[in-house]
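Limitations

Structures in this collection are predictions, not experimental determinations, and the ligand pose is part of the prediction. Treat each record accordingly. The example that follows, with heme C as the small molecule, is included so readers can see exactly what is and is not provided: the inputs are given verbatim, and the output is the predicted complex.
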Amino acid sequence: MIPGHVNEFWLEASEPGIYLGECAEFCGDQHAKMQFLVIAEEEEAFRAWVAQQQQPAAVPASELAQEGQEIFLGSTCINCHAIEGTGATGELGPDLTHLASRRTLAAGTVPNNRGNLGGWIVAPQSIKPGSLMPATEMTGPQLQALLAYLETLE
Ligand code: HEC
Ligand SMILES: [Cu+2]
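Predicted complex:
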């Protein structure tokens, strides 16, 4: 969160469960929208999750999702986002390789579903003013294809 400064911390959950974390120091406009979920699991389930998260993104199967991937790779998204297994290696924004497996978008701001994802892409500032993601203009059909692709990123 602080450019050039690496913070490390240790979380200890004594029982499996979902715990909500909050940024604890006022750090800017969207401080209230800086949450994170800690999902604590039994070791076996955790290891399976890690192995799954280390896989590159699956090649999209449907024609619509393939079209969406082309739109993603052909637009500014790749300046800021990486998707393992594709040519997208941007580092300014979150890695999207397993986007569809996340429960929320933009650091706990909204639930991760199709409506919020579409709204986020065309108008991130309306969901989180001051966010470092600019709006991307696209036609309705382009957005639908892009969403079909992003939803394959389990
Ligand atoms: C200039 C850099 C930039 C560009 C271009 C950009 N993004 Fe982002 N994106 C970001 C940043 C920074 C965030 C984190 C925003 C936050 O949480 O406040 C983000 C967040 C996201 C998220 C939420 C991810 C999560 O885990 O919460 C998605 C989905 C996303 N971007 C998709 C896209 C798509 C699709 C495009 C292209 C149409 C795109 N972005 C273009 C910088 C960018
Ligand atoms: Cu904060």
